Hints:
6-stranded mixed beta sheet; flat; disordered N terminus
Amino acid sequence: MSLASTSSQESAANIVGTEGSETSTTTEVAICRAFHPLENQDSVTVLSLQVPPLQVPEVSGDGERIPVEPKKEAYFDICLDVSGSMAGAGINCAKIAMKRLIDHLINTCGVPPIRITVYLFSHRCDVRRLGDDSDERWINSISAGGGTSFACVFNEIIKNTNIHIREVGRDDVDLDVTLFFFTDGEDGDARNLMLAKENLECLLKSTPRLETAVHTFGFTAGHDAKLLSWLTSTGTNSGCFQYIRESAEIESSMSTTMQLLGNSAMEAQRKIEILLTSDDLQNSQDWIPVKLESDGVSGSTVVRNKSFTGNTIKWREYQPAQQENADATSTSTPAANTVQDMGVEWLLEECSQRIIGMTTFIQHELLRLVESINTIGSSSLSAEEKRASLLEVDAETEAYTKVLGTMTSTAARMKVKLTREPCMVACQRTRSLLQSFLTLKADAHKRGGAISNTSLATFNSLAYGEITEAKLKAKLDSRAGKNTALFADLDQKISNIVEGLDLNKMEAEESEEKLRELSCAFSTNSYVDALRDGDCLCMTLDVSRGAGAIADASQLIIKSIFPTYLTSSMFTMALGHSLSQNNPEDVHGGFDRNIDASIAPGLAHENITAVMPLYINSEHWKVAKLRMKPILGYVVTLDATGYTYSQSTTVPFLVLAKALESSPMSEFRQRQVKLILETCDAIYQSSNTLRETTKKMVQQFCASHTQRTVDVVTNNYVFLGHVICALRAGDITTAEMNELMPLFEAAMVEEQIRRDMSWKVSEDLMGGVSAWFSIDRQRDIVIPGRRYREQHDAYVKALEKDGEGSSIEEHYRELFRTAQAKQGVVAKKSDSASSPTAVAVSLSVAEVDATPMSKPEFNIPDFDPLGWQLSEASLDRLSVIQNAISAGVDKIRRLLAVVQSPLDAELPEVLSSQLGAIAPPNKADEFFARFSSKVNLATLLQAFAHTKNSDRRSVENLMTPFECKIIQGGDSSAHEALKFLKSLHLAKMTQMVNEIVNAVEEEYLDSKKNAAASIFTGTSDLSVAAGVLLESKFRGGDGGVLGTQCAASQMRLPREKIQMLLSGTFNGVQLFSDKSSSLQGIRWFPCKRTLYRMFSNYHDKFTLDEWRQFHPDRYEDYIACRYVMDGYLDELPESRRAEVKAVYAGLWQGPAQ
């Protein structure tokens, strides 16, 4: 039976690299490219497969034939560690990252919320399936506390995965489960962990028709790197591990994960099966399943433990489990079940595809070797046996080191620069990873197979980082595979179009002036001449881009629009020539937003780095819209085959927004704007989807702030371009837009300010609230804080003062009596005999000698926002902030000017008078001048607080000060701004006051805890002891600390007090406030150390059975052994001694330690 490494399938995904067009071209003939990673060893074979595309149904939309992607049954489980170590910044950052992930799954991937399950785990695990209106509030309310038990979350995952399987209820459909695991701690439940790990791995790896992937995030040095390393490898598909050293890095790491998910999380990937030998076609166990990439035509796998050197293999479409019901196979086509031949091409050592594929293979092998070292270190082998096993790892490492050295030498000898460079980079990065592995392995030799937590986390992060980058590149390569087929017959399509055009008539009817103006600067051909050659005329641009533009074309930056025109073929020729003579990044700028590059100089020696095909007339557009696809693919991704349809509905509209910035607006510039606008019109009018959604989005944008964030409106400039085209096409009437315009303008400007705040305004520039309100900390906080501390100390002393020294115990008695009354428990006579003095909980009310005394208060100074005035320094800073964001506001308002007069008859006036004057007014300053400085400040502070989309969306019924004036009229904007400023001042003052109050209270409570423990152990009054527990409130908090202290000291009435601690009740009164929706009658179970201390001090106070009940199902045998080891057997009845000795003999082989 052949064995395929499922987790290695993705490791070979890039074996067919991007070097050479044949690697990404869709073929009608199946081909397999193969190599053996190690010399003289043919038992491991890396196979990269290319098969013909599977014919799928198509629907017509947006002017293209779009394939209908098959859907899959998919579930997504998000596991968040909420143990105590996550408290503070950790849990806050994790919640933000989790909300981003959930938003991406629902809004980008189309995942139904009910398919997303959230697990919150500490010492227990709470599970929630999303789909409720209160989900966001629930996530916001998540807090951290408690220990860490991975076993509890593993068991819940097993339980819920089985539920998912039953929900699908079909054996002919694959089920995908993707897990995301966030933790910063180590496991505290080692006894139950091993069994839970075994069960989880068995479920995720061995369940038929269940495909799984686990992505793990370990942050801070405290996380269990070994456990997460294992967890990442438990899926049938390889997951991604990320080591996050600081909590603030969680969100950025999630961005990488979302790029891996893409937008196809609910789309099924095509699978095929291969057979290396043709001995038994009917034996299903010999067929190896291979999941193809998202392009549906390429895939790879690693075959182990089977010698293969042949030139042909068999392949077929993946065969699902056959059902008795005929419906299960009714969708299969005869061709899908056909066994076909696939030729095998063995890659030579000097082949670049083999070198790049081999480096990826070595990276995965190093991860496998790390897991082997972990297994050795945790095994029960002797030191000599561990040493021998590590030597085997050394031998494998040496073999891969030798292969990598040979590959590096081969790559260095390659003569073609474009082939040599990626190979050298791949070898160098793999060598760096190998050096990290060698350091880790040396550490393991010194430690007998054990690896330090930090070393393992650092290596895993580096290794998975390399693999993740390869996966992201593979996504672009798979897009190239799809588009290669799209572009393959492009020239033939254009040739057919040109044959049907009467170009001579077109040329005769066109004016000489237009033919001269719209001509190529390099070839001097007019646009009509270009059409004769199957070419089109393009506008020239200077652009830059970051790597994010690959996924989001709106991140392309249009730096300049030039007066030079080029045909697409001239641009391509100039690009090829420039690349052959210069560093590629000096030509196209790479993915660096700040670099200056140049493909060719224009008429005015401008640096041309991009072009955009134009709509000149309907005949020219027939060719231009086809040429536009590979051009936009290159401009955005630096790969002509990296085209997506969203680039067509984004880039021309970014160019339009840039064109409207021009000032003064000459006649030539106005003609350029008209050309760009008509190009956008042609794109908009051909897209049914765009036309249907634009009007709806305008209405939603005005109606709610939640419909303005980047997940809904990716780019405001592009959106306004769509709105202009919708008005020109009549999809939105002028009357409808005029009615919405005041609110639409205010909302659009405020939203752009909010977005620009995140990167144009620093926290230092924005300053703290104290600076804006001229809060004097010394006057308003420090000096009143000293007085409060003095008053609080006097208050506490007065409470505790009692001539007989009994007021503290009486305080606890009163707590117990109050709890009896609240819980409706009838007091016993002995309970009510006490002093009449009463002291309220938390020092809120007190009586000493019948004289009432109030707790001191720290009063917040009143603030009058109407009378308050901004200082000169604050006004200057406000002006600086407004200047920082004015460019975006000005750009928005220039687009809005066209929105108000978009038609051809009105446009020249708008362009020449409003936008193109010699000294046009700053439209941002015009807008800010409508409002007072307080309104502008309130809006900017509110926007700065909401720079994160999650913060903005979390606010219900938000109305910005700008909107208030439009909706409510009059001075409502000023009124709303003053309310907001007052609330901001109050919040800041409350924060500073609470810091003082909490510090004073904390000091008092710390001193009181020690006193409470002393009272609990020393009192002979059980109602006093019960009062102490009532005040501690929680078993896991002060109650747990109290229990630990009591276990280590002698106390009065130990039996009664320990029973009180364990049960949490006394005389029918519930002493603790712990609550759980899943547990009834909660008991506190001491840890092993506390239990040992209790046993040492009070072994004779409880029977054997009672001691065993202190922690059922965990320490029964431990208690039995303690009786033997501590010499307390004589305290047991004769009948129980034999039982205890038998338990001890079964567990201990030798003297007690």
